[in-house]
Automatic annotation (TrEMBL):
Gene3D superfamilies: PmbA/TldD superfamily
Signal peptide: none
The organism's taxonomic lineage, starting at the top: Bacteria, Pseudomonadati, Pseudomonadota, Alphaproteobacteria, Sphingomonadales
Official protein name in the record: TldD/PmbA family protein
InterPro entries in alphabetical order: Metalloprtase-TldD/E_C (IPR045569), Metalloprtase-TldD/E_cen_dom (IPR045570), Metalloprtase-TldD/E_N (IPR002510), PmbA (IPR047657), TldD/PmbA_N (IPR035068), TldD/PmbA_sf (IPR036059)
One Pfam family linked to the record: PmbA_TldD_2nd
Domain of life: Bacteria
C-alpha cells in the first residue's frame, strides 16, 4: 500500500491532468486499504480472508457545470482518459449555481497534528488466530452457550489523500484492529444468538479478546426464553450499543443537504430547545486514536472540536460548501468523500455527555418498562421524525430488570423523544458515537 506522500502525489497528478484537459477547477481523492481476517469456529480454522483495494476519484468543474468520475485502474493511460472523459461530461452537465470547491481562504494549510491513528505493529496471521480463539473459547465457556457461529481477529490499514486545484494538498494513514464473536445459546426452537464486536486503531486499545468473548456469550444466554410485552405507553431505556443510533438520526437531520432540500424534521428549529438543558453532544474529530478522527475534511477544511448540541439546543448545521452556499452560510468542516460524486456529510467522534444517575437509579422508578438491547428495521422518517423500530431486550418491572422480551415495537417521534431523554452516568468512549444508557419516557410499545 502507498505511503501518504505517494498517495498525495497520485491525487495531485490527477488534478494536473484535469487542468490540462481544460477544467477551470478540480479536486481528486485517492484511497487505498488492505485487510486480513482469520476466522475460527469451534476451535478450528474456518476462513482466511485477505483484501486490497485502491480507488481514485476526480471532480471537475467547467464554470458552474461539474462531473465526477472514478477508477480503480491507475495506469497513466487510464488516468489521462479519466480526466478527458470527466471534462466532456462536465461540459454537457446542467449548470449548478452552488457547485464549486470550498472557499480558498478557508482551506487548512497544515502541518496537522499527529492523531496517532497508525499502529506500527502489524499482527501476523497466527496472532490474529490466537485472538479469535481466545474470544471464542471465552464465549463458549459461558454456561448456557451451546454452539458458535465463529470468532474473527482482523487487522487492516488505509491511506487517504485529497488534492485540489486551488491549493489544498493533504494525506494521512490509519490502521484498524478488531475482534468479533457470535455464539448460540439454548437448544431446539428456543435457541438465541448474540455476540460482541470491538474495533480500534491500535491493538492495545482493544479490551482483551477473552472479555469480548465473555460479553458475547453472556448476551446470548440473557436472551433465552423471552417473554412478550404488553402494548401501551411506557418508559423505554436504550442500551449504549443501540442508543447511539438516536444521535445518528439527529446528525442526519442536521445535514446541510437535508436542510437545503427542506427534508429534515429539524427544519426551522435551529436554536430551539430540543433536549433538556443539561444535554450536550460533543464532537472531537482530533481525538487521539479516535475511530472517526481526521485532520481535515473532505474538501480540505480544518476539523475542530465543538459542541453540536449545547444546553439542549443545536448549535448549527453540518455543512459542506454546496449546501452552505445554498443556505447563505459558511461550510462547517464536515464534508466527507466517498468513492465518487459530490461531498456528503460526516461527523467526528461524538459523545452524548453523561448525566448524574447510575443505571440502577435511572430505572428505579419505572414500574413497567423495557430495556432495549437490539433494534430491528429502518422505520425512521427523516422528514417528519416519526420513529418505529422492531426491538428486543429486557423487561423492567418495579425498577428492576425482570427477564428477556422479544417481538415488540417501540415508536414515537424523535422530537418528542429528544425532549424526554435522560442520560445515565455510564458513558464509555469505545465507539464512533458514544452514549450512556438513555431513558426516554412516553414512548409507545406495541407487543402482544
Amino acid at each position: 500500500m502507498l505511503s501518504p506522500a505517494e498517495a498525495l502525489d497520485r491525487a495531485q497528478q490527477l488534478v494536473e491532468r484535469a487542468r490540462r484537459a481544460g477544467a477551470d477547477a478540480a479536486d481528486a481523492v485517492y484511497g487505498a486499504s488492505s485487510s486480513e481476517a482469520i476466522q475460527v469456529r469451534l476451535g478450528k480454522l474456518e476462513d482466511v480472508e485477505r483484501s486490497e483495494s485502491e480507488h481514485i476519484s476526480l471532480r471537475l468543474f467547467v464554470g458552474r457545470r461539474s462531473a465526477s468520475i472514478g477508477s480503480s485502474d491507475l495506469s497513466e493511460q487510464a488516468l489521462d482518459e479519466l480526466a478527458q472523459r470527466a471534462f466532456a461530461m462536465a461540459r454537457s452537465a446542467p449548470e449548478d449555481a452552488y457547485a464549486g470547491l470550498a472557499p480558498q481562504e478557508r482551506l487548512s494549510r497544515g502541518p496537522w497534528r499527529d492523531l496517532d491513528l497508525i499502529d506500527s505493529h502489524e499482527p501476523d496471521p497466527q496472532a490474529l488466530r490466537a485472538l479469535a480463539e481466545e474470544a471464542e473459547d471465552a464465549a463458549r465457556a459461558v454456561a448456557g452457550v451451546t454452539n458458535s457461529d465463529g470468532a474473527t481477529g482482523s487487522a487492516g490499514g488505509g491511506v487517504a489523500a485529497l488534492a485540489t486545484s486551488h491549493g489544498f494538498a493533504g494525506a494521512y494513514g490509519s490502521t484498524s484492529r478488531s475482534v468479533s464473536v457470535s455464539v448460540v445459546a439454548g437448544e431446539g426452537s428456543g435457541k438465541q444468538r448474540d455476540g460482541e464486536w470491538r474495533s480500534a486503531h491500535h491493538l492495545a486499545d482493544l479490551p482483551s479478546a477473552a472479555s469480548i468473548g465473555t460479553i458475547g456469550g453472556e448476551r446470548a444466554v440473557a436472551r433465552l426464553e423471552p417473554g412478550t410485552m404488553r402494548s401501551g405507553p411506557m418508559p423505554v431505556v436504550f442500551d449504549p450499543r443501540v442508543g447511539g443510533s438516536l444521535v445518528g438520526h439527529l446528525m442526519g437531520a442536521m445535514s446541510g443537504g437535508a436542510i437545503a432540500r427542506r427534508s429534515s424534521f429539524l427544519l426551522d428549529r435551529l436554536g430551539e430547545q430540543l433536549f433538556d438543558s443539561g444535554i450536550t453532544i460533543a464532537e472531537d474529530p482530533l481525538r487521539l486514536r479516535g475511530l472517526r478522527s481526521r485532520p481535515f475534511d473532505g474538501e480540505g477544511l480544518a476539523t475542530s472540536p465543538r459542541n453540536l448540541v449545547e444546553q439542549g439546543r443545536v448549535t448549527g448545521w453540518l455543512l459542506e460548501s454546496a449546501s452552505a452556499r445554498q443556505l447563505g452560510l459558511e461550510p462547517s468542516g464536515h464534508a466527507a468523500r466517498g468513492g465518487n460524486g459530490a461531498p456528503g456529510i460526516s461527523v467526528g467522534n461524538l459523545d452524548l455527555l453523561p448525566g448524574t444517575l447510575s443505571v440502577d437509579a435511572l430505572i428505579a422508578d419505572i414500574a413497567d418498562g423495557v430495556y432495549v438491547t437490539e433494534l430491528i428495521g429502518q422505520g425512521v422518517n427523516g422528514v417528519t421524525g416519526d420513529y418505529s423500530r422492531g426491538a428486543s431486550g429486557l423487561r423492567i418491572v418495579g425498577g428492576r430488570i425482570a427477564g428477556p422480551v422479544a417481538g415488540f415495537t417501540v415508536a414515537g417521534n424523535l422530537l418528542a423523544m429528544f425532549a424526554a431523554l435522560t442520560p445515565a452516568s455510564d458513558l464509555e468512549r469505545d465507539r464512533a458515537i458514544n452514549v450512556p444508557t438513555l431513558r426516554v419516557d412516553g414512548m409507545t410499545v406495541a407487543g402482544d
